[in-house]
Amino acid sequence: MSELIQDIPKKVRGAFTKDLLLNTYFEHTELFSPAANKFLQEGRYSGEVFNSKKYNIFWEQEKERCIYGYMNPITKVEITGKHYFFLNYKQVKIIPPDQVGKKHAKRITSFPRFWPIHYFYSHDFERAKENGMNMIVLKPRDTGFSEFMSSN
Question: Which domain holds residue 14?
Fold first, then answer.
């Protein structure tokens, strides 16, 4: 076993950190959360009158995004429906951006940030489900998997 570990370059060994999971490969991730961003700005998802035509169109569109997924309009990266629902409609306890890195940070309830680990997991989960397979997941702590899995 020790021979196998020695064959792995030092740059790769131990490089799998939370920072790597948060800041890899993705740009404009705030665009995956249009409904959450509107809710944070205006305090509601739709500014339309209840049961009006525009209101019903908005919620029908959101329902489709939660079922079939959503594509980022700039990068053309697509997330699954479960991931879209999690980012836009599930509020979790997060550390505010101004307190990241502090020893004692007070968590607030807000919408989750986009994390690449959720992106990769949701796509792998969908692929496994389509093929009738199971998954085993090795994940770091404090990455919101319990909340992510309960969001469907």
Answer: 2-150
